[in-house]
Amino acid sequence: MRFTVVETGYDQRQVDYCLDELGIRLSRLAARAEGAAGAAREWDEIRQEAAWLSGLLQRLDLGDAVVNRYAADAVRGEAAEILAQARVELDAAREEARRVRERAYAEAVQARRDVEAALDARRRREARVEEILSQVTVDQVPADTPTAAAGVPGRRVGVGRPDAGAEPPPGRR
């Protein structure tokens, strides 16, 4: 992030805009992390439902042991596939959430470093300005001293009309 350097530090509007943009990006990343956590909860529910269905099939006695065993094995196999797929997707969601968290943290740390560096540079410039200003000496001007601003426009010497006692410059008549 580069900011325009102005007389008193970095351009405050640019810094504020940058911080707002970082806030928006962090909010988006947090929303993505929450979405990944929601997906993990959904897969937990699916896993529980598959386990419940598997238990239900084990408890049912439909009379034909071979058919029941075949159906139970098929359901267990399907439940195992669903569970395996859920685990894979849960692991992927956790990994994505971890990457999002790491990226958000890294961006926040970098933004903080940038702001701290900008503030440090501003403090150094302030100190330099104070040092320069402390070396400046100012002489008081008495209140009754005539100044150019005290004159009335058009009545001062050299303004509007030639002065009665003044001679024109050489070479002009």
Automatic annotation (TrEMBL):
Alphabetical keyword list: Coiled coil
Source organism superkingdom: Bacteria
Compositionally biased tracts (Low complexity): 148-166
Coiled coil spans: 76-114
Region Disordered, residue ranges: 140-173
Official protein name in the record: ATPase
Keyword Coiled coil: yes
